Amino acid sequence: MGSDFYEMRAKLENAVLRHHDFYRSSLPLIASENLTSSFVRRFYSSDLGHRYAEGKVGKRFYQGCEFIDEIEEMALKLTKKLFNAEHANVQPISGVVANIAAFFALTKPSERVMALSVPCGGHISHDRISAAGIRGLEVDYYPFNYENMEIDIDKTAKIAREKNPRVFVLGSSLILFSQPVKELAEIASELDSKVMYDASHVLGLIAGGAFQNPIQEGADVVTGSTHKTFFGPQRAIILSKKELADRVDDAVFPGVVSNHHLNTLAAYTAAAIEMMRFGKDYAEQTVKNAKKLAESLYNLGFNVVGESRGFTESHQVAVDVRKIGGGEKVAKSLERINIILNKNLLPWDDLSKTINPSGIRMGVQEITRVGMKEGEMEEIAKIMYERLMKNGNERVLRERVMELKSRFRTLKYTFEEEEAYTWV
């Protein structure tokens, strides 16, 4: 029996090592992932991971929380400063949990919200099948202009005045451009409704000043996961206007969070410090890289979404790949040469296209963090062209990817440059 345990241990370690080796030699373009520094990671395995701290700072339900209070108070101050927010809550343990809390704070069951449909970029948690449904909400979808990849405000205003939604949900999973916060805030004011913005994908770009700041444009509540364009671990924050502070806090605890994973709270605080120091340069380079990748793919003949608006203003690039087999085929073909991205529904798809949708989605935030710039975006586009348009040899192109990545394994935008893919 003892040997079985050693075999299981070895099998587990081997799987993790092979995973690390794979990503060390790949180009990760998943738009919802990023790397953390050793400064951030060191807190994951601290004693904080063993402890509980239910309740608010200074009002815990357990003893032994003196230093935990100090950490959370620091996190709150940094968060409000980074986003120029009146109130912050740093206890949600994921973006979906933050969205559930926001819905509980802002609505009652059976009330209506407006949101982007999933094919138009909306996240599942904005819909009936997830967080909005858990709250028992009815969901109406924004009319959407496919060509410009934007909400049709005039049609939205007409629907809103007919159906009187309690919340206008903004932010999305596919988010290429800024969204009409100011315009919807005006409509919401007329209807005594609220605007909620899910900033999960663009939180780091907002912190770095490279994307719209929804709080400053009139959003009442902003949610966001902290591990996509932000430098942190997988958890989330909620920002709000001061008058909503109690409702938000009560919805988080005791609403949807008990203990809130104190090791990743400390890691988030470390990431906020990094973002305060390096966020501006990082966010600006991330957007530059996304634009260059989109332009390069377009110039090589790809049908890049958002052409009429310059392709992208965020970290993301979307491509319509229907003519070359669809998102499923393309994503798997690229994975075989170590380019990692995801298939993605596009606005003209219906949900029956989920298995093989029209599009692929890419994010450049992780490869930006290891130091890649515009020249590398052009090189990546050429490799994708050779694979997808010319049916280039897998082995040859995989070697090109691995050689490119071998030049970029050092984590940047942190206090000390370091190997990004180590594991002990």
How large a portion of the residues is in β-strands, by DSSP E?
Answer: 5-15%
Total helices: the number is 15
Overall tally of domains: 2
In terms of quaternary structure, the protein is single chain
What would CATH call the homologous superfamily of the largest domain?
Type I PLP-dependent aspartate aminotransferase-like (Major domain)
Biggest pleated-sheet summary:
7 strands, mixed
CATH topology of the largest domain: Aspartate Aminotransferase, domain 2
Mean pLDDT: 96
Number of strands: 19
Radius of gyration: 22 Å
> How would the global form be characterised?
globular
Name the CATH class of the largest domain: Alpha Beta
Going by CATH, the architecture of the largest domain would be 3-Layer(aba) Sandwich
Cα-to-Cα separation, first versus last residue: 26 Å
Helix content percent band: 40-55%
Low-confidence stretches: none
**Side-by-side strand order of the widest sheet:** 4-12-11-10-9-5-6
